Amino acid sequence: MDISTLHKPPIIFKEMTWAxxxxxxxxxxxGSGLMPKAPGxxxxxxxxxxxxxxxxxxxxxxxxxxxxxxxxxxYICGQTAKILHVxxxxxxxxxxFAGQSIAFLPLIHLxxxxxxxxxxxxxxxxxxxxxxxxxxxxxxxxxxxxxxxxLDDIIAGSWAALCIxxxxxxxxx
Length: 173
Prior knowledge:
Blueprint: H1 18-27, H2 39-47, H3 51-57, H4 59-84, H5 94-103, H6 105-110, H7 115-131, H8 136-142, H9 145-172
């Protein structure tokens, strides 16, 4: 058993109200955050299933949905942390959903995504989310609650999107 899971309280849904169950179910990424190892990676991988939705919506509608997803995520992640009595527990992966989706914005703008770019966007987001370069690490350590849980992943996704955008810009010039 992973030593980091020894200190995490178990999620006991039967002790929650119906509303708390729904919030926690969303917060743990519809179950994708319950993987015993690398739950953030599994949450990010689950978010890849959103790509066809983003493409069908188009850039501006997808961006609007991602903004709403991020704003809802502040509440969902904050409440999930409160219900589970932990701060930014690895099992909370709604923030990965938003951050991973943001990483693909330059590709959604183009209107098509190939699997090589999906892998690149996935890898870049995970790199920034795990490595936590400035200001991501500072935000992760100093901002509490749902806002802090969401903001570091939003910035990691934005950095990944910026890397893709810079590459696309210079590769087509």
